[in-house]
Amino acid sequence: MTRNILVTGGAGYIGSHACKALAEAGYLPVVYDNLSLGRHQAVLWGPLVEGDIRDADRVARTLRDHEIQAVIHFAALSVVGESGIRPLDYYGNNVGGLLGLLKGMAAATCDTLVFSSTAAVYGEPRVSPIPEDSHTEPLNVYGRTKLICETILADTAAAHGVKVVSLRYFNACGADVEGRIGEFRRTETHLIPRALMALQGHIEDFMVFGSDFPTPDGTAIRDYIHVEDLAEAHVLALKRLLNGDAGGTFNLGTGHGYSVGEILATISRITGHTLAAPQGGRRAGDPARLVADGSRARTQLGFIPTRSSLDNIVATAWRWHQIAHPTRNSV
Protein backbone atom coordinates (compact mmCIF):
# COMPACT_ATOMS: atom_id res chain seq x y z
CA MET A 1 0.00 0.00 0.00
CA THR A 2 1.33 3.43 -0.97
CA ARG A 3 2.17 5.64 1.98
CA ASN A 4 1.26 9.29 1.55
CA ILE A 5 3.82 11.81 2.81
CA LEU A 6 3.18 15.53 3.18
CA VAL A 7 6.13 17.58 1.91
CA THR A 8 5.91 21.20 3.04
CA GLY A 9 7.87 23.45 0.71
CA GLY A 10 7.89 20.60 -1.80
CA ALA A 11 7.85 23.01 -4.75
CA GLY A 12 11.27 24.36 -3.74
CA TYR A 13 14.77 23.23 -4.65
CA ILE A 14 15.48 20.58 -2.03
CA GLY A 15 11.81 19.75 -1.45
CA SER A 16 11.19 18.88 -5.10
CA HIS A 17 14.21 16.57 -5.18
CA ALA A 18 12.93 14.90 -2.01
CA CYS A 19 9.57 14.36 -3.74
CA LYS A 20 11.37 12.62 -6.59
CA ALA A 21 13.27 10.38 -4.14
CA LEU A 22 10.06 9.58 -2.25
CA ALA A 23 8.25 8.59 -5.44
CA GLU A 24 11.16 6.38 -6.49
CA ALA A 25 11.01 4.70 -3.07
CA GLY A 26 7.29 3.92 -3.45
CA TYR A 27 5.75 6.80 -1.48
CA LEU A 28 3.25 9.38 -2.74
CA PRO A 29 4.54 12.89 -1.98
CA VAL A 30 1.76 15.40 -1.39
CA VAL A 31 3.23 18.89 -1.76
CA TYR A 32 2.01 21.63 0.58
CA ASP A 33 3.37 24.99 -0.58
CA ASN A 34 2.19 28.59 -0.83
CA LEU A 35 4.37 29.07 -3.95
CA SER A 36 5.88 32.27 -2.58
CA LEU A 37 9.31 30.81 -3.29
CA GLY A 38 8.55 27.41 -4.82
CA ARG A 39 7.69 26.78 -8.46
CA HIS A 40 4.59 24.97 -9.69
CA GLN A 41 6.68 23.44 -12.50
CA ALA A 42 8.74 21.55 -9.91
CA VAL A 43 5.73 19.59 -8.61
CA LEU A 44 6.07 16.47 -10.76
CA TRP A 45 5.56 13.44 -8.53
CA GLY A 46 2.28 14.01 -6.69
CA PRO A 47 -0.55 16.46 -5.99
CA LEU A 48 -0.08 20.08 -4.92
CA VAL A 49 -2.06 21.70 -2.11
CA GLU A 50 -1.59 25.47 -2.01
CA GLY A 51 -1.53 26.69 1.57
CA ASP A 52 0.45 28.38 4.32
CA ILE A 53 1.92 26.21 7.09
CA ARG A 54 0.89 28.84 9.64
CA ASP A 55 -2.72 27.90 8.89
CA ALA A 56 -3.08 25.00 11.32
CA ASP A 57 -6.67 24.25 10.28
CA ARG A 58 -5.72 23.93 6.61
CA VAL A 59 -2.73 21.78 7.53
CA ALA A 60 -4.96 19.46 9.56
CA ARG A 61 -7.55 19.27 6.80
CA THR A 62 -4.87 18.42 4.24
CA LEU A 63 -3.42 15.70 6.46
CA ARG A 64 -6.85 14.11 6.88
CA ASP A 65 -7.99 14.50 3.26
CA HIS A 66 -4.84 12.87 1.88
CA GLU A 67 -4.49 10.26 4.65
CA ILE A 68 -0.96 11.46 5.42
CA GLN A 69 1.24 9.16 7.50
CA ALA A 70 4.24 11.46 8.00
CA VAL A 71 5.52 14.95 7.20
CA ILE A 72 8.82 16.17 5.75
CA HIS A 73 9.08 19.86 6.59
CA PHE A 74 11.13 22.08 4.24
CA ALA A 75 9.02 25.25 4.11
CA ALA A 76 11.13 28.13 5.42
CA LEU A 77 12.85 31.38 4.57
CA SER A 78 16.55 30.62 4.26
CA VAL A 79 18.64 33.54 2.95
CA VAL A 80 21.23 34.27 5.64
CA GLY A 81 21.91 37.91 4.78
CA GLU A 82 18.24 38.71 4.33
CA SER A 83 17.40 37.17 7.70
CA GLY A 84 19.28 39.95 9.50
CA ILE A 85 17.30 42.60 7.60
CA ARG A 86 13.90 40.92 7.99
CA PRO A 87 14.12 39.15 11.38
CA LEU A 88 10.39 39.35 12.14
CA ASP A 89 9.56 37.71 8.81
CA TYR A 90 12.05 34.92 9.52
CA TYR A 91 10.86 34.26 13.06
CA GLY A 92 7.23 34.52 11.96
CA ASN A 93 7.63 32.18 9.00
CA ASN A 94 10.18 29.67 10.29
CA VAL A 95 9.20 29.44 13.95
CA GLY A 96 5.55 30.43 13.53
CA GLY A 97 5.27 28.07 10.57
CA LEU A 98 6.57 25.14 12.60
CA LEU A 99 4.05 25.91 15.36
CA GLY A 100 1.21 25.98 12.81
CA LEU A 101 2.38 22.70 11.33
CA LEU A 102 2.65 21.00 14.74
CA LYS A 103 -0.82 22.20 15.76
CA GLY A 104 -2.24 20.89 12.50
CA MET A 105 -0.46 17.57 12.96
CA ALA A 106 -1.80 17.25 16.50
CA ALA A 107 -5.36 17.93 15.32
CA ALA A 108 -5.02 15.26 12.63
CA THR A 109 -3.20 12.80 14.95
CA CYS A 110 -0.12 12.69 12.70
CA ASP A 111 2.97 12.25 14.87
CA THR A 112 5.92 11.63 12.52
CA LEU A 113 8.13 14.45 11.21
CA VAL A 114 11.43 14.84 9.37
CA PHE A 115 12.70 18.40 9.86
CA SER A 116 14.96 20.38 7.54
CA SER A 117 17.60 22.09 9.69
CA THR A 118 21.00 23.57 8.90
CA ALA A 119 24.68 23.61 9.78
CA ALA A 120 24.16 27.32 10.50
CA VAL A 121 23.07 26.27 14.01
CA TYR A 122 26.75 25.64 14.86
CA GLY A 123 28.01 29.16 14.21
CA GLU A 124 31.80 29.42 14.39
CA PRO A 125 32.97 25.78 14.66
CA ARG A 126 35.27 24.85 17.50
CA VAL A 127 36.27 21.53 15.92
CA SER A 128 36.42 20.26 12.35
CA PRO A 129 34.82 18.10 11.06
CA ILE A 130 31.80 19.15 13.14
CA PRO A 131 29.89 16.43 15.08
CA GLU A 132 26.25 16.82 16.09
CA ASP A 133 27.08 17.36 19.76
CA SER A 134 29.20 20.42 18.97
CA HIS A 135 28.46 23.76 20.60
CA THR A 136 25.56 25.56 18.92
CA GLU A 137 25.74 29.35 18.74
CA PRO A 138 24.30 30.59 15.43
CA LEU A 139 25.79 33.74 13.95
CA ASN A 140 22.68 34.85 12.05
CA VAL A 141 18.92 35.08 12.43
CA TYR A 142 18.29 32.21 9.99
CA GLY A 143 20.43 29.83 12.07
CA ARG A 144 18.77 31.00 15.27
CA THR A 145 15.29 30.29 13.87
CA LYS A 146 16.33 26.75 12.99
CA LEU A 147 17.88 26.12 16.41
CA ILE A 148 14.71 27.39 18.08
CA CYS A 149 12.71 25.01 15.90
CA GLU A 150 14.93 22.10 16.93
CA THR A 151 14.30 23.00 20.59
CA ILE A 152 10.55 23.19 20.02
CA LEU A 153 10.63 19.77 18.36
CA ALA A 154 12.65 18.22 21.20
CA ASP A 155 10.19 19.59 23.75
CA THR A 156 7.20 18.42 21.70
CA ALA A 157 8.69 14.96 21.30
CA ALA A 158 9.25 14.72 25.06
CA ALA A 159 5.78 15.98 25.99
CA HIS A 160 3.61 14.42 23.30
CA GLY A 161 5.54 11.52 21.82
CA VAL A 162 5.99 13.10 18.40
CA LYS A 163 8.65 11.17 16.48
CA VAL A 164 11.22 13.57 14.96
CA VAL A 165 14.42 13.46 12.96
CA SER A 166 16.25 16.77 12.43
CA LEU A 167 18.66 16.89 9.49
CA ARG A 168 21.36 19.55 9.55
CA TYR A 169 22.40 20.33 5.98
CA PHE A 170 25.75 21.59 4.94
CA ASN A 171 25.92 22.98 1.34
CA ALA A 172 23.24 21.48 -0.90
CA CYS A 173 24.05 21.77 -4.60
CA GLY A 174 23.76 20.08 -8.01
CA ALA A 175 20.58 19.11 -9.85
CA ASP A 176 18.38 16.24 -10.97
CA VAL A 177 20.47 14.16 -13.38
CA GLU A 178 17.63 14.18 -15.95
CA GLY A 179 17.61 17.99 -15.92
CA ARG A 180 13.98 18.36 -14.80
CA ILE A 181 14.55 20.32 -11.57
CA GLY A 182 17.45 22.33 -10.24
CA GLU A 183 18.60 25.36 -8.26
CA PHE A 184 17.46 28.73 -9.62
CA ARG A 185 15.82 31.16 -7.19
CA ARG A 186 14.45 34.63 -7.78
CA THR A 187 17.22 35.92 -5.51
CA GLU A 188 20.11 33.46 -5.67
CA THR A 189 22.85 33.60 -3.01
CA HIS A 190 24.60 30.24 -3.38
CA LEU A 191 28.04 29.99 -4.96
CA ILE A 192 27.58 27.37 -7.67
CA PRO A 193 24.30 28.60 -9.20
CA ARG A 194 25.50 32.20 -9.02
CA ALA A 195 28.71 31.28 -10.82
CA LEU A 196 26.79 29.45 -13.55
CA MET A 197 24.27 32.28 -13.84
CA ALA A 198 27.18 34.72 -14.25
CA LEU A 199 28.63 32.56 -17.03
CA GLN A 200 25.25 32.60 -18.75
CA GLY A 201 24.84 36.34 -18.43
CA HIS A 202 21.93 36.22 -15.97
CA ILE A 203 23.77 38.20 -13.27
CA GLU A 204 26.53 40.79 -13.43
CA ASP A 205 27.58 41.11 -9.79
CA PHE A 206 29.29 37.76 -9.14
CA MET A 207 32.02 38.09 -6.52
CA VAL A 208 34.21 35.96 -4.27
CA PHE A 209 33.74 37.00 -0.65
CA GLY A 210 37.10 36.74 1.06
CA SER A 211 40.51 35.73 -0.24
CA ASP A 212 42.45 35.97 3.03
CA PHE A 213 41.01 33.07 5.03
CA PRO A 214 43.52 30.77 6.78
CA THR A 215 43.06 28.10 4.11
CA PRO A 216 45.47 26.79 1.42
CA ASP A 217 44.21 29.18 -1.28
CA GLY A 218 42.78 31.89 0.96
CA THR A 219 39.12 31.18 0.10
CA ALA A 220 36.49 29.67 2.39
CA ILE A 221 36.08 25.90 2.55
CA ARG A 222 32.64 24.28 2.66
CA ASP A 223 31.21 20.75 2.58
CA TYR A 224 29.18 20.39 -0.64
CA ILE A 225 26.58 17.61 -0.88
CA HIS A 226 24.61 16.76 -4.00
CA VAL A 227 20.91 17.48 -3.61
CA GLU A 228 20.00 13.94 -4.75
CA ASP A 229 22.15 12.49 -1.96
CA LEU A 230 20.44 14.90 0.43
CA ALA A 231 17.02 13.76 -0.81
CA GLU A 232 17.95 10.12 -0.28
CA ALA A 233 18.88 10.90 3.33
CA HIS A 234 15.34 12.19 3.93
CA VAL A 235 13.90 8.90 2.70
CA LEU A 236 16.23 6.99 5.01
CA ALA A 237 15.22 9.21 7.96
CA LEU A 238 11.55 8.72 7.12
CA LYS A 239 11.95 4.95 6.98
CA ARG A 240 13.72 5.03 10.35
CA LEU A 241 10.73 6.74 11.97
CA LEU A 242 8.07 4.67 10.20
CA ASN A 243 9.87 1.50 11.27
CA GLY A 244 9.47 2.59 14.90
CA ASP A 245 13.12 3.49 15.48
CA ALA A 246 14.16 6.47 17.60
CA GLY A 247 14.46 9.96 16.15
CA GLY A 248 17.57 12.06 16.42
CA THR A 249 19.71 14.80 14.90
CA PHE A 250 22.00 14.11 11.96
CA ASN A 251 24.52 16.07 9.91
CA LEU A 252 24.19 15.71 6.16
CA GLY A 253 27.50 16.31 4.43
CA THR A 254 30.33 14.39 2.83
CA GLY A 255 33.05 14.98 5.41
CA HIS A 256 35.22 16.63 2.77
CA GLY A 257 35.58 20.35 2.12
CA TYR A 258 36.27 22.27 -1.09
CA SER A 259 37.41 25.86 -1.28
CA VAL A 260 35.72 28.53 -3.37
CA GLY A 261 38.83 28.50 -5.55
CA GLU A 262 38.50 24.76 -6.15
CA ILE A 263 34.81 25.17 -7.02
CA LEU A 264 35.54 27.88 -9.59
CA ALA A 265 38.38 25.86 -11.12
CA THR A 266 36.04 22.88 -11.51
CA ILE A 267 33.34 25.07 -13.06
CA SER A 268 35.89 26.38 -15.56
CA ARG A 269 37.00 22.85 -16.47
CA ILE A 270 33.48 21.37 -16.75
CA THR A 271 31.97 24.28 -18.72
CA GLY A 272 35.03 25.10 -20.79
CA HIS A 273 34.76 28.79 -19.84
CA THR A 274 36.69 30.91 -17.36
CA LEU A 275 34.60 33.02 -15.04
CA ALA A 276 35.69 36.48 -14.01
CA ALA A 277 35.58 36.46 -10.21
CA PRO A 278 36.29 39.83 -8.60
CA GLN A 279 37.54 39.60 -5.03
CA GLY A 280 35.47 41.15 -2.27
CA GLY A 281 35.87 41.29 1.47
CA ARG A 282 34.72 38.61 3.87
CA ARG A 283 31.09 38.63 4.90
CA ALA A 284 30.49 39.13 8.60
CA GLY A 285 30.27 35.82 10.43
CA ASP A 286 31.67 33.67 7.63
CA PRO A 287 33.82 30.87 9.14
CA ALA A 288 36.92 29.80 7.24
CA ARG A 289 35.92 26.13 7.20
CA LEU A 290 32.62 24.25 7.65
CA VAL A 291 32.84 20.49 7.18
CA ALA A 292 30.50 17.83 8.54
CA ASP A 293 31.27 14.84 10.64
CA GLY A 294 28.76 12.53 8.96
CA SER A 295 29.56 9.36 10.91
CA ARG A 296 26.28 9.35 12.86
CA ALA A 297 24.18 9.46 9.66
CA ARG A 298 26.35 6.74 8.16
CA THR A 299 26.04 4.36 11.09
CA GLN A 300 22.44 5.05 12.18
CA LEU A 301 20.69 5.96 8.91
CA GLY A 302 22.90 3.96 6.57
CA PHE A 303 23.52 7.17 4.60
CA ILE A 304 26.50 7.14 2.23
CA PRO A 305 26.68 9.98 -0.33
CA THR A 306 27.37 8.51 -3.78
CA ARG A 307 26.63 11.44 -6.11
CA SER A 308 28.61 14.20 -4.40
CA SER A 309 31.84 14.27 -6.36
CA LEU A 310 32.59 17.86 -7.31
CA ASP A 311 32.55 16.97 -11.01
CA ASN A 312 29.06 15.46 -10.75
CA ILE A 313 27.75 18.38 -8.72
CA VAL A 314 28.93 20.93 -11.27
CA ALA A 315 28.04 18.85 -14.34
CA THR A 316 24.44 18.23 -13.25
CA ALA A 317 23.96 21.85 -12.21
CA TRP A 318 25.39 23.12 -15.51
CA ARG A 319 23.21 20.76 -17.54
CA TRP A 320 20.09 21.96 -15.75
CA HIS A 321 20.95 25.64 -16.10
CA GLN A 322 21.49 25.17 -19.84
CA ILE A 323 18.13 23.42 -20.23
CA ALA A 324 16.05 25.62 -17.96
CA HIS A 325 17.61 29.04 -18.45
CA PRO A 326 19.29 29.52 -21.85
CA THR A 327 22.41 31.63 -21.99
CA ARG A 328 22.04 35.32 -22.66
CA ASN A 329 25.60 35.91 -23.90
CA SER A 330 28.09 34.13 -26.14
CA VAL A 331 29.02 31.28 -23.74
Explain what this protein looks like in three dimensions.
- With 331 residues, the chain is of the alpha/beta class.
- The protein has two domains: 3-173 and 224-252, Rossmann fold, CATH 3.40.50.720; 191-222 and 256-292 and 307-324, UDP-galactose 4-epimerase, domain 1, CATH 3.90.25.
- Helices cover 39% and strands 17% of the residues.
- The chain is built from ten helices and 14 strands.
- The chain has helices spanning 13-24, 56-65, 80-85, 87-107, 141-160, 191-200, 227-242, 260-271, 295-301, 310-324; strands at residues 3-8, 27-33, 48-50, 68-73, 112-118, 163-169, 171-173, 208-209, 221-222, 224-226, 248-252, 258-259, 279-280, 289-290.
- The protein has a seven-stranded parallel sheet with strand order 3-2-1-4-5-6-11, with helices on both faces. A three-stranded mixed sheet has the order 12-9-14.
- β5 (112-118), α5 (141-160) and β6 (163-169) form a beta-alpha-beta unit.
- α1 packs across α7 (227-242), α4 runs parallel beside α5 and α6 (191-200) packs parallel to α8 (260-271).
- The protein starts with a strand and ends in a 7-residue tail after the last helix.
- The mean pLDDT is 93.
